[in-house]
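User: Please fill in residues for this 249-position structure.
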């Protein structure tokens, strides 16, 4: 899908002289780059912070706690993965997407169940600089609400009798109202730009703040149009209705 939003987003400055603030968006690294990139941290000026690149680490150990799987590796250099960074993990149970936490020599992802040998071989790779992400750039507030739904067929008989049957394989749905309160302008713009770019068609992965309830490594959702309220200078509220989908990826 072609990139089209209401917000002017500049392309990556190849000279590397421009610093970027956390949540700031850039429109690809060139004419053929199909992605928007969102800063996962403050990005200083420097050519080595180009959003595209190859990063690879061999995992040394793995631990599991509270539905989170933590991969440890030997860090080389001083470019650390950040919450929201993109990774691909090769191993017995692979993973591709955003991490929920990262730092010097580790990354964490959500994994609702894990019963593998902690010594199994895995490799963490990324073709996106850890200081940038192509995924959803923000985490919603705890005040976000969930509404469950189900779909069934009902056949009515006489005398008040009836019979019901689930109408789909995935008959239990979820609709969220994601709330982002008092977010600064750059974060607000990145959220709205991301939603407009997906245009209610392309699903994206969502990480919710309470991992003990929503135990999914990547919950895919599609977003309806957002609502935006300006509270004061440089502070906004955004609400985004999203619906869980079951696309094959």
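Assistant: Residues filled in for all 249 positions:
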């Amino acid at each position: 899908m072609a990139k089209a939003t209401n917000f002017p987003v500049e392309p990556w400055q190849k000279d590397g002289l421009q610093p970027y603030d956390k949540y700031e968006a850039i429109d690809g690294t060139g004419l053929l780059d199909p992605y928007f990139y969102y800063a996962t941290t403050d990005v200083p000026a420097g050519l080595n912070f180009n959003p595209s690149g190859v990063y690879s680490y061999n995992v040394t150990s793995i631990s599991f706690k509270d539905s989170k799987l933590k991969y440890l590796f030997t860090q080389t250099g001083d470019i650390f993965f950040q919450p929201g960074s993109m990774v691909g993990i090769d191993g017995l149970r692979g993973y591709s997407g955003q991490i929920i936490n990262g730092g010097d020599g580790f990354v964490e992802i959500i994994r609702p169940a894990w019963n593998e040998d902690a010594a199994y071989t895995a490799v963490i790779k990324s073709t996106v600089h850890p200081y940038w992400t192509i995924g959803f750039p923000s985490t919603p507030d705890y005040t976000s609400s969930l509404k469950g739904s189900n779909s069934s067929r009902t056949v009515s008989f006489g005398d008040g009798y009836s019979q019901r049957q689930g109408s789909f394989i995935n008959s239990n749905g979820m609709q969220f109202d994601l709330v982002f309160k008092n977010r600064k302008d750059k974060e607000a713009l990145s959220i709205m730009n991301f939603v407009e770019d997906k245009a209610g068609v392309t699903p994206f992965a969502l990480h919710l703040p309470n991992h003990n309830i929503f135990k999914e490594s990547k919950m895919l959702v599609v977003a309806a149009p957002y609502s935006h309220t300006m509270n004061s200078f440089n502070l906004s509220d955004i609400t985004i209705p999203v619906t869980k989908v079951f696309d094959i990826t």
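For context: The CA atoms of residues 61 and 72 lie 5 Å apart.
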